[in-house]
Amino acid sequence: MRKAFIAALVELAEQDPRIVFLTGDLGYLAVEPFAERFPKRFYNVGVAEQNMMGLATGLAEGGMIPFVYSIAPFAILRPYEFFRNGPVQHRLPVRVVGVGGGFEYGPNGFSHYALEDIALMRAQPGVTVVVPADHVQAGNALRVTAGLPGPVYFRLGKDDKTTVPDLNGRFYLGRAQLVVPGDDLLFVALGTAVQQAVAAANVLETHGIDAAIALVDNLTDAHPENLTGLLARYGCVITVEAHYLNGGVGSLVCEIVATEGLDCRVVRCGVARLESGVSGSEAYMLDQHGLSASKLVEKALSVVGST
Amino acid sequence: MAGRRGHTMDPRRIRRIIIEQSHRVHVGHIGCALSVADLIAALYGGVLRIDDPDDADRDRFVMSKGHAALALYAALYLKGWLTQRQLDTFCADGTLLGVHPEEALTGVDFATGSLGHGLSIAAGSALAARLQGSRRRAFALLSDAECNEGSVWEAAMFSAHHRLSNLVAVIDLNGQQALGHTKDVLDLSPLANRWREFGWNVIEEDAVESGSAERIAARLNEIDTSTGPPTVLIAKTRFGKGVSFMEDRIKWHYWPMSDDEYTQALLELDAS
């Protein structure tokens, strides 16, 4: 996803001399195409994320469009106050690129996981949060959001191969997408978690359950305009996200169900609490937290069986 | 542009506004604002190239020690960018002139209030100017205790490494912070050497004696902002300067004035 994103960014930067790229000394084998094509607009600022976000604020106020790049928790958590008081408060077109959503940095452990990034970024008014589901969509999402006047956060996965069937990179600002139709229940998945939901839906079909899947690939402080209508059509909704249970898509769906008065049961699949110090591969961690396809199938069967 | 050659803003007028406004609304941060009055008078009177606060190619100024914003408001008023009516909304309900500056107010380039942000932001401003081939410059006014923040030194390293010659930091060295003297809380000395070792061009200037604003402006205008490393001007200031019972007294970091103190303060300012 990083390679596709950087490739799209190089294309944009060919047309737009305002684009400048800052990295906190990360992005080996990913950011080189930009650095080589635009050496004067590429800054490795060193391991100093607060300064990176402050620089981006000054650059953007001065008419540039800075992209700040790091592993997701370093891109967001260390300079969070700089982000809030800078690009958010001044409504500036700073692009924060956080690599590795959820457990993507697997064996690197807790310090490298991004499990609260969506909650933190969506809490800030005027910020567009983009969570591409695959690498094709990542490039397109960058192009679609290029003209936004305010801050954008991209949660980029590391997978440069897998694609979501039939998505073909489509991306619509302010809307969720129904990527798989179905009648019996609705999965609402955040970004790449849609892949586990698709695999689960395929298994559920063999059990005679017709599961639909909605993809949430962008969020703001407002609700996606079509999500209420989608939720209203299902009596049972299962949210799926590599994120803490609080503040992500599960919370978003509950907000909509409650405020719109929908008659819909919501089951949230996400990370409740980490076992202290335990790490493992992404697949292992997802399974441990009920987010693998097989665990989603178990959950769906128990939910449908109980209604 | 008359101000570019000679200093034209009277710091005594800034001090009077600080005293009047902070008494009117009964707020503190008086000593900090008085401490920077000469520095602000120098910058706005004779250094910053700002023909129009909306000009995209103006010099940028970051009031990194945002809690002294009242001194900045006074300068914006004296420049004619704020009306008396606006100034009189200081700390009123619904105002844009809070204790800390907001960029929504004309003349304020960046909102501040949390220490340690301003030098990075000014470095970004300076870098934008370089990338755009502009001669505009970026200035940041920092408190001495603000140098406790690690982010200040991140910005210092970056700016020196990239030789941001169009970046100027001014440090208000009054030796005090919220709960005590800087030498007791977290000793900064030798401050000039620290900046020098970080690769900055360092200027030290006394801003306690009379005529400080003119001297500071002159020193700032001597800086070559087209080549070489970034510059820091470390200005030895006096906390609460101009009001005898506030000078070098920690309590005036937060304390508001009584009516008697206000009368006394005005008498002293008028006599100066």
Number of alpha- plus pi-helical segments of chain A: 12
- Note the run of SSEs of chain A as H and E: HEHEHEHHEHEHEEEHEEHEHEHH
Helix % of chain B is 25-40%
Query: Biggest interface: chains and residue counts?
Result: A-B, 28 and 33 residues
How large is the share of residues in beta strands of chain B? Answer: 5-15%
**Structural shape of chain B:** globular
Identify the CATH homologous superfamily of the largest domain in chain A.
Answer: Thiamin diphosphate (ThDP)-binding fold, Pyr/PP domains
What does this structure look like?
The complex is a heterodimer of chains A (307) and B (272). In chain A, strand 5, helix 7 and strand 6 form a beta-alpha-beta unit. Chain A has 12 helices and 12 strands. Chain A is an alpha/beta fold and 307 residues long. In chain A, helix 1 (2-15) packs parallel to helix 7 and helix 8 (194-206) crosses helix 12. Helix content of chain A is 38%, strand content 20%. Chain A folds into 2 domains: 2-156, Rossmann fold; 177-305, Rossmann fold. A 7-stranded mixed beta sheet of chain A has the order 2-1-3-4-6-5-10, sandwiched between helices. The N and C termini of chain A lie far apart (39 Å). Chain B is α/β, with parallel strands linked by helices. Chain B has one domain (2-271): Thiamin diphosphate (ThDP)-binding fold, Pyr/PP domains (Rossmann fold), CATH 3.40.50.970. Chain B is built from 11 helices and 7 strands. A 5-stranded parallel beta sheet of chain B has the order 1-2-3-7-6, sandwiched between helices. A two-stranded antiparallel ribbon of chain B has the order 4-5. Chain B is globular and about 50 Å long. The two termini of chain B are 28 Å apart. The model of chain B is unreliable at 1-5 (pLDDT under 50). The interface between A and B is medium-sized, with 28 and 33 residues.
